[in-house]
From TrEMBL:
Belongs to the leucine-binding protein family. Keywords: Amino-acid transport, Signal, Transport. The keyword Transport applies. It comes from Noviherbaspirillum sedimenti. This is ABC transporter substrate-binding protein. The keyword Transferase does not apply. SUPFAM superfamilies: Periplasmic binding protein-like I (SSF53822). GO terms for biological process: amino acid transport. Pfam families: Peripla_BP_6.
Length: 386
């Protein structure tokens, strides 16, 4: 070995040793994620997981999170609940009892409701994207909503449809679970208030793949618009494709759980043309583009736009921990949530404290959302809703 090679290897080894020593000197702050990492809900679940992981990597690259003068490396531990409450309970027990996690991010309403009491009993601080009003009540101290929910944005979304869609006869389709029930009830009320005729509503199982019998029933109702609010991305795309193949010429809308890119992938570009989606981001936003590029490095594919909301929520959580000045005392962290806001989203919009419409004041992050229309396979922002 020549001198040049020896010096190079010695220098690299010295740098690695220093990095290892720095990591060893920092304590670890663990954040658990319980989400649907496989199956139809995977686009949402991976956004949950990697929104938090991307933020953790950024914090760790700067030496860790400073809490009370002590540095913490942020570790994200994710488990798959496959959109099933029973699997969520198993994942939660593993995170809390075995992994020692005190902070959890939850994706779905079924999982949130299954864990609601355990979170309060264990004093685990949890952020949820559950839309059900049942997730938070007067006795809830440790659960927080991480973004605006349908009661915040669906009214404006349906009003936009009223002013921009010609036909006023709608059929509402949703999955047969807590999320679907809530959104069916809310959507039906709002469509009627805005002058639409709700020709029918129907439910399907999230595992369902053949929608021809259901679509046959829907087409017999002669809708101008089919609302797919809580459908998972691949399922929504499948319904769109099968309905187009069966002759449906009307409009599709999705007033919740936005996922236009995944819908196009499942339906085909031509079938999805003109579909109207609620959007959590403006795809042209520079902050989203940066986050999307980081996501692609981690996962190797384009992200679901909801990655923004989970990145922002994790950021709010870390700020609340810093304000509390104590990683271990979750009561202090929960009490510091209100002090963490307002703050800026990665998109540059203001994240504020809200929850009045859900009855959970001071336990919800209020975000800004958009109306998008799929044009040539891509969502184009045509309006903003708050």
């Amino acid at each position: 070995m020549n001198l040049k090679t020896f010096v190079k290897r010695f220098t690299v080894g010295l740098g690695l040793s220093a990095a290892l020593l720095a990591g060893a000197s920092a304590e670890t702050l663990k954040i658990g994620v319980i989400a649907s990492l496989t199956g139809p809900g995977a686009p949402w679940g991976l956004a949950t997981q990697y929104g938090a992981k991307i933020l953790a990597s950024e914090v760790n690259a700067k030496g860790g999170l400073d809490v009370g003068g002590k540095k913490y490396q942020v570790e994200v531990i994710a488990y798959d609940d496959q959109y099933k409450a029973a699997d969520a309970v198993a994942a939660y027990n593993r995170l809390v009892r075995q992994d020692g996690v005190k902070y959890v991010i939850l994706m779905s309403s079924p999982s949130t409701l299954a864990l609601k009491q355990s979170i309060e009993d264990d004093k685990v601080v949890a952020f949820t994207s559950a839309i059900t009003p049942k997730a938070i009540d007067a006795n809830t101290k440790y659960m927080f909503r991480l973004y605006s929910t349908p009661i915040d944005y669906v009214p404006s979304f349906v009003t936009w449809l009223k002013n921009n869609v010609k036909g006023k006869r709608v059929v509402i389709l949703n999955p047969n679970d807590e999320t679907g029930w809530d959104l069916t009830q809310l959507s039906e009320t709002l469509y009627k208030e805005n002058g639409f005729t709700v020709a029918g509503t129907d439910l399907y199982e999230r595992t369902q793949k053949d929608f021809q019998p259901l679509i046959t029933k829907v087409l017999s109702m002669k809708p101008d618009l089919i609302e797919l609010s809580a459908a998972s991305p691949p399922t929504a795309g499948l319904i769109v494709r099968q309905a187009r193949e069966m002759g449906y010429k009307g409009v599709f809308a999705k007033n919740s759980g936005p996922s236009p890119n995944e819908i196009v992938a499942a339906s085909g570009k031509e079938a999805a043309e003109g579909m109207i989606n609620l959007l959590y981001v403006d795809p042209t936003n520079s902050g989203f583009k940066r986050l999307a590029a980081d996501y692609k490095k981690f996962v190797g594919q384009e992200p679901h736009e909801q990655v923004v909301t989970y990145y922002d929520a994790a950021n709010v959580l870390l700020r609340a921990i810093q304000i509390a000045g104590d990683v271990k005392d979750t009561s202090k962290v929960a009490a510091s949530f209100a002090k963490a806001l307002p703050m800026k989203s990665v998109l540059g919009e203001d994240l504020t404290l809200s929850g009045k419409k859900n009855g959970d004041l001071n336990q919800q992050i209020l975000t800004v959302d958009y109306v998008g229309v799929i044009k040539n396979g891509r969502p184009v922002v045509v309006g903003k809703v708050k």
